């Protein structure tokens, strides 16, 4: 844990001796939460694992909303989600159950993907983040498949 004049941060380390982390979340006194996680993009420099990205972002939004509610800050919560360093990566799209993917999806031509919206606390985190999930596919030149859950 790190303390600063305007808030606190959590940055997990794999071992106590590590000098670097792949994830940081900073909670400001204002109620804003900023986070960054590079683990998914660092794991593979060629592919963009959309299923894992969607699961991670939805999970984190839910956790941050729970944290803010615990502080007495009630929804709706404004979110801004983004990915950087995706240009040249190929989409790895989850296939419908019972199907196997043989080839990689299209190459992303944009360096970044950024979208924003509101989470009302009643909808699922995935449905709140749907505009961002669609933007990932849009920036890579194809629509998000309808069979993917929200």
Structural class: alpha+beta
Q: State the low-pLDDT regions, or none.
A: none
**Number of helices, where a helix is a run of at least 4 consecutive DSSP H or I residues:** 4
The coarse silhouette is globular
Strand order of the largest sheet: 1-2-3-4
- % residues in beta strands: 25-35%
Q: What level of helicity do the residues show?
A: 25-40%
Order of helices and strands: EEEEHEHEEEHH
- Our Rg estimate from Cα atoms comes to 17 Å
Main pleated-sheet profile: 4 strands, antiparallel
Give the terminus-to-terminus CA distance.
33 Å
Mean pLDDT: 90
Q: How many domains would you count in the coordinates?
A: 2
Total number of strands = 8
Summarize this, please?
The chain has 150 residues and is α+β, with helices and mostly antiparallel strands.
Describe this structure in words.
The protein is of the alpha+beta class and 150 residues long. It has 2 domains: 1-37; 39-150, no CATH class. The chain has 4 helices and 8 strands. The chain has a 4-stranded antiparallel sheet with strand order 1-2-3-4, with no helix packed on it. The chain has a two-stranded parallel ribbon with strand order 5-7. It is globular. The mean pLDDT is 90.
């Amino acid at each position: 844990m790190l303390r600063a004049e305007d808030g606190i941060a959590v940055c997990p380390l794999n071992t106590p001796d590590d000098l670097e982390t792949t994830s940081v979340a900073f909670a400001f006194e204002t109620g804003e939460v900023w986070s960054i996680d590079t683990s998914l993009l660092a794991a593979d420099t060629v592919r963009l694992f959309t299923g894992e990205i969607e699961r991670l972002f939805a999970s984190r939004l839910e956790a941050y909303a729970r944290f803010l509610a615990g502080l007495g800050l009630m929804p709706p919560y404004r979110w801004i989600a983004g990915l950087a360093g995706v240009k040249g990566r190929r989409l790895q799209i989850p296939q419908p159950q019972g199907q196997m993917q043989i080839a990689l999806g299209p190459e992303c031509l944009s360096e970044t993907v950024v979208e924003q919206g509101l989470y009302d606390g009643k909808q699922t985190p995935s449905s709140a983040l749907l505009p961002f999930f669609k933007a990932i596919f849009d920036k890579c030149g194809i629509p998000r498949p309808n069979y993917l859950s929200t």
